[in-house]
Structure formats: structure tokens, C-alpha cells
Amino acid sequence: MKPLLRAVLILDALLLLAFGLLFLLTPWTSLYNALLLVQTQPALVGQGFGVALIGLAWLALHASIDGALTSTVAKVVGHVNWLTGVLMLVWLLGLHTPALTGFGQIIAVLTGVVLLVVGLGGVRLSGAVRRREKVRLGEAAAAERAEKQAAKDAAKDAANKRDSARATAGFPAYRAEPVVEPVMPVTQPVSPVSAAPLHSVVDEPGLTASERAARAETAAARDDARNAAADAPGAPRPPFHG
Predict the structure, then answer these.
(1) Cα–chain-centroid distance for residue 238?
(2) How distant, in Å, are the alpha carbons of 75, 84, 89, 129 from that of 110?
(3) Cα dihedral angle (107, 40, 59, 65), rounded to 10 degrees?
(4) Are the C-beta atoms of 125 and 66 separated by less than 8 Å?
(5) Which terminus of the chain is more solvent-facing, meaning fewer CB atoms within 10 Å of its CB: N or C?
């Protein structure tokens, strides 16, 4: 659709350039007489109108290249063309002014019809292109909003994952470790009998026979008293071993 509109703009530019040059040559009387056209009076007005048409032709040609100006300029140029065509038909067919010969009148009427058709076609094409551009811009905006929302969701998920990771790092997982029971040393009670000296004092050197006998009797009496105390009913007994 847009390439067709650009082609219409190029056609508009050529038509506007032709009419602009024709009006710019208004003082050339012989040319107008050869083309059976009526000269614009005064010539200054015709030349000023020719300069305006040439500028409009340049704008149409520039819009056919620059896509950002295509629809807008095509709409403006289209309205100018079809309004000019209607004006020419009204004056030539309705008011029969200016008075032209048969061939000149046919050429003028055909020119008015061409301007009318090309102008209306350009306006309709520009409207269609504008609607398509609006739809495309809406789709692009919707896609951009969807991308932004997806980026926000991804950032939110990443933030939630970081928070959960930090929370997990703050509370380390519990690991059950085996409890090592202390080993208590085994102690054996010392019996009263074993507490007695292994070597009796009677074996000490330097003692006389009588002293050794007295000490032996004393040790025997002490052993008998200790054994009697151990054999008593209320006396504590050592634990049983083996």
C-alpha cells in the first residue's frame, strides 16, 4: 500500500512541477498563444503561483522518499489536487470561463478530471496507510509493554530467589553428629586386706629376735581384728569380681 502511495506522490510531483513551470513562464506570450492558453494577469501573480506549485512539487517528491512524511504530505497534496480539479471543471463547464477553443477546452477539462482523480486517490491511499501505521504502532507498543512486563517479572523472580537464598544461608541445615560417650576409667576398690603392707615390718633388719616376735604378734592381732571387722554382718563388702 505504501509503495503505491509513493508512486502517486511522484505523479503529483510531476504534475505540480509542470503547472509550476507553466505559471512561472506567464510573461512568455508566444508560448501561451501556441498552447491556446489564457495568460494570467498580472504576470506577477502567475509567477508567484508558479513558485508555490514548484515548492509543493519538491515537497511531494521529498515525501515519496521519506517514509515519515509520506502519508501526511500525500493527504495535503491530494486535497490540493482534487480541489483544483473541481474548481477548473466548475469554471470551464459551468461558467464557460475563460473562453477557449474546442481543443483547448478539451485539454483543460481533461486536466481537471486528472487532478480530481489523482487527488482523491491520494487522499484515500494516505488514509489507508495512516490506519495501517496506527495498527502497527499499536502492536509495537503492546509488544514493548509485554517485554517490559516480562522483564519486571523476571527481575521479581530473581529478587525472590536471592531472598530465599539469603534466608537459607542464614539458617544452615542441621546435621546430626554422633555423640561420643566419655570413657570412664575402671577403678577397683582396694580391699582392706590388700591395703596391708606386702612386707611385714618384722623383716626389717636390725631387730632382735624378741622384737621381731613381738611385732609379729602385734601384726597378727591387727590382721585378726581387721578380718573380724570385715566379717561382721553390718560391715561393707567389696564388689564381687570375676
Answers:
(1) 87
(2) 22, 13, 9, 28
(3) 30
(4) no
(5) C
**What distances in angstroms separate CA 65 from CA 69, 137, 143, 162, 201, one per listed residue?**
8, 20, 28, 52, 135
1-36 per-residue burial string, b: 16 or more CB within 10 A, e: under 16: ebeebbebbebbbebbbebbebbbbbeeeeebeeee
Nearest to 17 by CA among 54, 52, 46, 65: 54
Residue showing cell 498552447: 35
User: Residue 176, Cβ neighbours under 10 Å: how many?
Assistant: 5
Name residues whose C-beta falls within 8 Å of residue 202's C-beta, 6 or more positions apart in sequence.
212, 215, 216, 219
pLDDT tens-place values along the chain, 242 residues long: 778 888 888 988 898 898 889 888 888 888 877 777 777 788 888 888 889 989 989 998 988 888 788 888 888 888 988 898 898 888 888 777 776 677 767 887 888 898 889 889 888 888 888 888 888 888 888 888 888 888 888 888 888 887 777 777 655 554 555 555 555 555 544 444 444 444 444 455 566 777 777 777 787 877 777 777 666 555 555 554 44
**Integer Cα distance of 227 and 218 in angstroms:** 14
Cis previous bond, 42, omega within 30? yes
Task: Write the CA distances from 33 to 28, 36, 41, 82, integer angstroms.
Answer: 9, 5, 14, 27
Q: Is 130 exposed, middle or buried (0-12, 13-18, 19+ CB in 10 A)?
A: middle
